[in-house]
Amino acid sequence: MSTDVMIYANDLSKSFGSFRAVDKISFEVRRGEVVGFLGPNGAGKSTTMRILTCFIAPTSGTVRVKGFDVFDSSIDVRRSLGYLPQRAPLYLEMSVLEYLRFCADLRHLDNGTFNKRARSVVEVCGLAQVLGKEIRYLSHGYRQRVGLAQALIHDPPILILDEPTSDLDPNEKTEFLEYLKQIGKERTVLLSTHNLAEVEAACARAIIVSRGRIVADGAIEEIRAKSGKVRRYTISILEAGVGDANAKAPKPTEIEATLRGVPGVKTVSIVPGEDKSATYELTTERSVDLRPELFRLIVDKGWVLLELHRDTQKLEDVFRDLTIGDERRNRVVGGKDAPKSARAKAAAAAEADEEDDEEEDEESSK
Amino acid sequence: MKESTATAEPGLVGVRERSEIAGSGGTQNNILTIARRELRAYFDSLVAYVVIGGSLLGMGMFFFLFQGGGFWQVDRVTMARMFEFMPWTLAVLVVPLVTMRALAEEKRAGTIELLITLPVTDADVILGKYFAALAMIVILLAATLAYPIAMFIWPWHLGALDWGPVWAGYLGLFLYASAGTAVGMLFSSITDSQIIAFFLTAFTLVLIHVLGYFVEYLPGVLGDVTSFLSFQARYAPFERGLIDTRAIVYFISVAVICLLYAFRSLESRKWS
Question: Which ipTM was obtained for this model?
């Protein structure tokens, strides 16, 4: 294991009763990497992060953070980490400054270091206005920032952030991701999120988990390329029946049939859109660009083209492809193939009890 | 933002050096830091004021007014009545109120996840909270000193008080509180509802206390066991001014066992 490996997980599993929240996950994160940890709700992201931060112990497997084992050198692991849980862990009766001071004290930061770090953290998280305020009076966005400040206060070499941007507004998000990229050059960042645009903006690499297993791990481009060659075209054409000027305008059925006739087109579907136009979504498996052909066809017909564009393969499509198929995978230990069995449900409920803040997640994924 | 990256490196080195220096001395500091925060939280919320104000008021009323005229009826220079009532106040109100939030609230609010993932041990967390709660009760006990002082030293001189039994009584109360607080910590560690923690603690403490009153009606071994377990039976000598070393050992043992159990229950979240 090279010394550059900051987070090392091998065959990591965690069961809650008979429910496998994390199932033999293995991955490594090196120094200078910002890695997006993706997956649907209840996929095991938070559980994995809690294991990395020594909040819970794995059922089996090896986890090393900065070379320290989570069992043998738990304190050293926690010393090298900055962690923001899904729900910002704040003492509401404290002021922001007192709170940061408290966290710094428990990390044995001396006064000089604290002052210096506090200044930079306050700047990064935009907390200058609220430093003296009690946390209970702060809005969600500010609370999230305070939680973030707590994770950064000791300038940790490794940052583990569980949905750090969930309560930030779009401006804050952009700024924060920019900052992550900055510090990610020297440090190691593992952040979980549902927002794929964020991952594309901040991370070079993504790990996608579904139902406790890793379904993809690699550079974003690689992952994007991984799922088939399905391409999507969106075409919008002025429709018949709107005024006399458009005598030549076609009927929707006519358009659909024509588009279907184009070689290479696999499916055509109507997308509900504006009144005066019909929008169609075409998919094809060929990598050849169909746009010139489509344009010529429409011109030949004399139709009025309002819009034509090709979607490049989105991370979201990949995400959907990778995780939906996995939804049905049976994860009940000892069971056969009935993922929705009473036992699985009971186990899921048990987990929801266990991890109170994931209760909603569990609910929605059922 | 650029500035922060520039200052980042020295900061990082600072952390490492400190942690190496801190090494073994860290754990007391951690306990102290946690205890200080807890104590502040008591005074920032209403708990501290309700506990101190409420129990002083209640004590005063029981001492002077209720139960057949109380202190005046007895017509002796003694604080015994106070030491008879204080354990009740501790069991029913003070200890449950002070300990209920200790861990239950952290679990409910999710701040436990912060504490546990900071580089402190679970024992630091439990002890920090325990000492804060105990300190809170000691503050209350110190406040009750106002009664003997006001009645026998200044401004009134109702007689010459023998202070020996008073100090013995306070030692008894302190031991009683030490054990009771540990019981409260235990219940606070097994639930994430303050209310449940409150009632479980109050119920248990009252039960253990009341046991003492049945000792004389219970025959043989049963009576022995009851008197062994009862806080009241253990505390009674102190009430009369006797310092019983067996009771000291008993109270401390109860405290240690309960704290160990609280520690285990906090740790069990890892394995569930």
Answer: 0.85
